[in-house]
């Protein structure tokens, strides 16, 4: 079992602590938090071992899970990698691309594994169809959330939209050509509502909307490609795959047939895969253990996290130019 430690014991940090303790792949050594009173209370209430010395915790572990506020990601990541430990780090990977590139350079230099917590890649609905998304040419996403003060220290792009940015980059195998966006600050000092358009060199266009002041929750993505429409509901963990194929010579009574202006007939049919239930956070942590033990590429490596951050920052830059 890999010895694991957690930096940061806030809301998400406590979830990671619980799952690492439950996992059969890790031996949870303990945690560090910058607030001693908060940390002592967690140790008393939940029983996790609190390390008041961050270096002592890192030295005792094989892998460190960084769940601190984003502004501390870079310094925490550098400390972990320089100590020769594998790094799991929550999204966004860092504040700047330059900081992220430093983590990549350190991990390569020391031959260490790094993974970014882009948890929607492990959502069972997305995982069930990701291999069926082939050369999409139009993508539309909506990620709406009710207001929660937690996370408003960063733009809604880094808070919410980055999940969809990462998912899109994982299925569109083409460089980004252009980014345009608009955002509005309603309650926070940074934008609470944002819309972005990402154009890829292969002609694919993605239209993304994110809001953290909505009256309802929504996390949906729709992928349109040749002869197929794929809908992913990240919230309800449901998928819908609608495909088209050449219509049979003699359609059945219940076949759905469309005919275009040229007289070509297509049959519409549903090709929905089974969606296996899972705990996405536990899965991302345990697949990272696989990457460490088998010396394979993490599913969302540091380079992936940096690519998502780069696009997110380009979107935010568009806000500032308005």
Automatic annotation (TrEMBL):
- Please give the InterPro entries that the UniProt record associates with this protein: Gfo/Idh/MocA-like_OxRdtase_N, Gfo/Idh/MocA_Oxidoreductases, GFO_IDH_MocA-like_dom, NAD(P)-bd_dom_sf
The protein's matches in Gene3D superfamilies, at most eight in alphabetical order, are given as: Dihydrodipicolinate Reductase, domain 2 (3.30.360.10), NAD(P)-binding Rossmann-like Domain (3.40.50.720)
List each copy of the GFO/IDH/MocA-like oxidoreductase domain by range: 147-216
What is the top-level taxon of the source organism? Answer: Bacteria
Coiled-coil region list:
none
GO molecular function terms noted in the UniProt entry = nucleotide binding
| Listed Pfam families | GFO_IDH_MocA, GFO_IDH_MocA_C3
**Ranges for domain Gfo/Idh/MocA-like oxidoreductase N-terminal:** 3-117
- Which protein, by its recorded name, is this? Putative dehydrogenase
Q: Which organism is it from?
A: Nonlabens xylanidelens
């Amino acid at each position: 079992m890999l010895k694991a430690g957690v930096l940061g014991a806030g809301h998400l940090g406590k979830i990671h602590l619980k799952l690492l303790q439950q996992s059969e792949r890790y031996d949870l050594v303990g945690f560090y938090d910058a607030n001693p009173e908060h940390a002592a209370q967690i140790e008393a209430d939940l029983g996790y071992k609190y390390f008041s010395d961050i270096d002592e915790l890192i030295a005792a572990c094989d892998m460190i899970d960084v769940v601190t506020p984003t502004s501390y990601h870079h310094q925490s990541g550098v400390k972990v990698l320089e100590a020769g430990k594998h790094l799991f780090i929550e999204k966004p990977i860092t504040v700047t691309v330059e900081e992220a590139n430093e983590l990549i350079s350190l991990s390569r230099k020391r031959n260490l594994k790094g993974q970014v917590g882009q948890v929607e890649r492990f959502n069972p609905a997305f995982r069930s169809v990701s291999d069926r998304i082939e050369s999409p040419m139009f993508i539309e996403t909506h990620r709406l959330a009710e207001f929660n003060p937690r996370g408003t220290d960063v733009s809604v792009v880094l808070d919410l939209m980055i999940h969809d940015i990462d998912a899109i980059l994982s299925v569109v195998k083409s460089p980004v050509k252009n980014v345009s966006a608009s955002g509005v600050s309603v309650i926070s000092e940074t934008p609470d509502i944002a819309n972005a358009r990402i154009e890829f060199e292969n002609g694919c266009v993605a239209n993304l909307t994110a809001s953290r002041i909505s009256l309802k929750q929504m996390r949906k993505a729709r992928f349109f490609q040749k002869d197929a429409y794929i809908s992913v509901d990240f919230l309800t963990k449901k998928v819908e795959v609608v495909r088209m194929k050449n219509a049979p010579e003699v359609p059945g009574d219940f076949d759905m047939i469309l005919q275009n202006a040229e007289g070509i007939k297509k049959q519409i049919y549903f090709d929905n895969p089974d969606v296996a239930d899972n705990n996405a956070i536990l899965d991302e942590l345990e697949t990272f253990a696989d990457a460490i033990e088998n010396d394979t590429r993490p599913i969302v490596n540091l380079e992936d996290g940096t690519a998502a951050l780069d696009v997110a920052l380009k979107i935010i830059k568009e806000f500032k130019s308005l």
